[in-house]
Amino acid sequence: MDESNTNKMSKLPQAARERPTLKTIAYMTGLGITTVSRALKDAPDIGADTKERVRLVANQLGYQPNRAGVRLRTGKTNVIALVLSIEEELMGFTSQMVFGISEVLAGTQYHLVLTPHSHQKDPMVPVRYILDTGSADGVIISRVTPDDPRVRLMSERNMPFATHGRTDMGIDHPFHDFDNEAFTYQAVEKLAAKGRRRIALLPPPATLSFYLHSRTGFERGLSDFGATEVALGRISTETPLGDIRTYAERMMGSANAPDGIISISGSSTIALVAGIEAAGKKLGLDVDLVSKQSADFLNWIRPEIHTMNEDVRLSGRELAKAVIARIDGVAPELLQSISQPAWSSMGPTD
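^ that's the sequence the OP posted. Answer follows.
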């Protein structure tokens, strides 16, 4: 900051020095408050030199728009709310999703607010709160069910939103999804090519939409490649990791042990590997394992695991673009996308 601006800062009241406002920038630049406001909004009738001058001072001061004031003037919060289960932080899912969303929001007026909740509690609570308080202009949700009451409520209340996952309820809405049907089908194909014929699937909870997609691809793969299923009973990716490890150890020590396993979750895969090895079995010899992962890490600890990547950061970017476009009035059916699985280059070579 140059000397003249430093001198001006020293003359400001203490409150203005602590929280710069449009009035602060106007004082520092010698411009009117209206001119400063329009310069920050990139108004076409404000000259480029003036805009640059205002932005330079705003950056030096660390100016941030007052959201309460923006809301009073425009009825908007400039907030996108991301509602995520606290359990989804395992293996960096949440951080990758946030990174992706933030990459898109960085070039807009929107700010991201993370709204955590537990999947064991009523998933409607955080969505109702956002709707009742008007605390966001758009919402992103995950853990979608085929008939999701959050989707119905937000549609009825005309709240722009996007979902990480698809529904099956006759409501067109923005979404981005990973093709879990393709993942499980290709996983069965991989295991069959390795000579595996008794295959188990560690699925997501049966209430979620991608359970159905996973089962569809898995069963189609079993039929096409001549394999049979070894059922895992009630075990799912939300079973406590210690219980998954114990179950895998007992299963691999039984006469009904599978020779191939498919896991939908990277963290669950680690528990599976621990149980397999506790039973005295060896990956790549006694059993082959295919796992989905959201970041390259499984092959660092066990190169024998066959891995497919789900780009959660990409999902975040697509969801952010979709919800902003929906706020701007783009039709929901134009804001739907599905990403494809990709084999990791770090897995075992065949």
